[in-house]
Automatic annotation (TrEMBL):
Ranges annotated as biased composition (Polar residues): 36-46
The C1q domain, residue ranges: 128-266
Alphabetized Pfam families for the sequence: C1q
Cellular location(s): Secreted
Signal peptide (from-to): 1-21
Keywords noted in UniProt: Secreted, Signal
Lineage, opening ranks: Eukaryota, Metazoa, Chordata, Craniata, Vertebrata
InterPro entries the record matches: C1q_dom, Cerebellin_Synaptic_Org, Tumour_necrosis_fac-like_dom
Cross-referenced PANTHER family: CEREBELLIN 13-RELATED, CEREBELLIN-RELATED
Protein source organism: Clupea harengus (Atlantic herring)
GO cellular component annotations of the record: extracellular region
Region (Disordered): 25-46
Protein name: Cerebellin-2-like
Amino acid sequence: MKGTLILVSLLVSWVCGPAATAVLDPDVPSEDGHGTENSNEIQNYSNQSAPEVCQLSTCELLLRALGTMQGRMRAMETRLEASDTKAVAMETKAVAMETKAVAMETRLEASETKAVAMESEIEQLKRANADKVAFSASVGGDEYQTGPYNVRTHLKYKNVLTNLGNAYNPSTGVFVAPVRGMYYFYFCYHAGQQNRGALSLHKNDQIIATTSHRTAESGMTENGSSGAALQLEVDDHVYVILHGNSWVWDGSYHETMLTGFLVTRL
Ligand SMILES: *[C@@H]1O[C@H](CO)[C@@H](O)[C@H](O)[C@H]1NC(C)=O
Ligand SMILES: *[C@@H]1O[C@H](CO)[C@@H](O)[C@H](O)[C@H]1NC(C)=O
Ligand SMILES: *[C@@H]1O[C@H](CO)[C@@H](O)[C@H](O)[C@H]1NC(C)=O
């Protein structure tokens, strides 16, 4: 800022002569010209081919301009000081925030550790729960009889009695092994003799067991059942197929049922 002041002084000096400069700037020693480097500079500038003396009106104008500029500079200084104060305050705040951020990071890390611990706990619980698999369901539904159909059909045991572990899906009739292990399945049916009755227990695409009867004229009913212990891998499918042109009957005593449970994990 002092540099600007000097420049202005020089300008005035150049136009008005050294005396005017001395009046304008109290820092510059007066008339005799020797002493500081500043006054020398002014003298040398004023030495150049400019007029030695300026019009009074011009000087007044310049003085006024200078006064305004000094005022502005003071204002700017004040603002600068205020900015400095603000900057210091902001720095303090930034430091505080950094401290907070570090604290939060620490807490986050602690939370993360906890989350990992909880996840492993949940995994353990899941594993423990996966050991509990058992279901029983009867065909149920609105009609007593299911079939006969022309084609082989997934028999859906819609009336769920138990379904521990939810590995059996009543809307598809398929049991999906949740863990590797030895399971036991049992299925039985009841049906009239007017149609054939034939059911097969399947593991994936493979027929495991079948129970059936032939058509007869007697008007009597038939009952059949079968079952098997099966070693299953995770995601193996077990279900019952109702053969083509055969039927089953299910009533309130649950005559046609499928049951399965995990004997032991392997
Ligand atoms: C100004 O001029 C004088 C001679 O007139 C000289 O002695 C002095 O060193 C000069 N000052 C500067 C800053 O050039
Ligand atoms: C300034 O003027 C003086 C004489 O008045 C002269 O000796 C000096 O060389 C001049 N300086 C410049 C920089 O022109
Ligand atoms: C089949 O079981 C039913 C009872 O659910 C019984 O009434 C019927 O006599 C049985 N059929 C035969 C052939 O034993």
